[in-house]
Specification:
By secondary structure, this protein is an alpha+beta fold. It contains 11 helices and 8 strands. The radius of gyration is 35 Å and the shape is rod-shaped.
Length: 319
């Protein structure tokens, strides 16, 4: 089961107790996946379509709870994808349809089908709890989320820029930085930051999905942290090996060119010790000396040997 489906399965079990929240969620559902038709007698009918049986059941229970009345359900099989079915909830009672449209503010006083886009003046979503319900309904109707194991991406698809702006502003009300992108003929409201997607799941009250996402995020952060440490250690080892190889090369050049006779006792001792211990760290070399010294002291002596080797090479080139 996809992560999107898991979220929708969980949200489908959540029926708001307050009628105002039920209406807000229904408003989002009809707005994003509903169709309102008017016959020649100017009677209104509502049709809501989804491919998810659990979501269809949620729509049915939600409308039944808030408005009572008769709701028909049609099941259709996709002709090209034999396994896929679509579920249509149809309200043929024009009086019930009008009650729903008026309650959800999807029809004005003149009987025209319009949507009040303002989240400030629209009474349907004035309460914080109703904003939560509207976002939940919007995700059930047209939302999806990527597999968090791969990437973090939460989105809800809308048909108009006005609907997208309304939904974006509603999500931003909860301090989540939702954005809009145009994709072909649609406008997509999306959130890409993992921690903010956690906030969106909390807004919709998908607490189980939230915990699953948090667990994935923790594991990914642990893996990334371990990978960074391993890469850092590998880089340090590579750097140490490269430096030790150069030091050994310089020491051997001095030995083969002029020998160690003119070197000070300290330089002679560290040169011989590096030849005996080519893989030892600077700290380890310092502890092996007759008079132990620190890492910086060892590095200072090896740098002096490198300068001597470079000087001998330049002198040879001049000849």
């Amino acid at each position: 089961m996809s992560f999107s489906r898991e979220i929708k399965e969980e949200l489908s079990k959540h029926i708001p107790t307050g009628r105002h929240c039920q209406i807000a969620e229904i408003a989002a559902i009809i707005s994003l996946c509903g169709k309102i038709s008017v016959n020649e007698k100017e009677q209104h009918f509502i049709k809501i379509v989804t491919e998810n049986l659990t979501v269809a059941r949620k729509y049915f229970m939600l409308i039944k709870e808030a408005f009572q009345g008769d709701i028909q359900i049609q099941v259709r099989r996709n002709r090209y994808l034999k396994r896929n079915r679509s579920y249509a909830l149809i309200i043929r009672d024009s009086q019930m349809s009008m009650r729903i449209l008026k309650a959800t503010k999807l029809i004005n006083q003149q009987g025209d089908i319009v949507e009040e886009m303002s989240i400030i003046s629209n009474r349907v979503v004035q309460n914080t709890c109703c904003k939560r319900a509207f976002i939940r309904g919007a995700f059930l109707a047209a939302g999806s989320m990527s597999d968090p194991e791969k990437t973090y991406h939460f989105e809800i698809i809308t048909t108009t820029e006005e609907k997208a702006a309304q939904l974006r502003d509603m999500i931003r009300f909860f301090d989540v930085d939702a954005k809009i992108v145009k994709r072909k003929k649609y406008f997509v409201v999306y959130v890409k930051d993992g921690s903010q997607i956690v906030d969106v799941l909390n807004i919709m009250e998908a607490h189980k999905a939230l915990m699953n996402l948090e667990n994935v995020r923790i594991l990914k952060e642990m893996r990334n942290s371990i990978n960074r440490q391993v890469n850092c250690e590998a880089a340090n080892i590579s750097k140490t090996v490269t430096a030790a190889s150069k030091q050994l090369e310089d020491i051997l050049y001095i030995q083969n060119t002029v020998g160690f006779g003119d070197l000070s006792p300290g330089l002679k001792e560290i040169a011989k010790l590096r030849m005996e211990q080519p893989d030892a760290s600077l700290k380890e070399l310092g502890s092996m000396l007759s008079t132990p010294i620190g890492k910086s002291g060892v590095n200072h002596r090896l740098r002096k040997l490198s300068i001597i080797a470079d000087s001998l090479r330049e002198h040879k080139e001049e000849k």
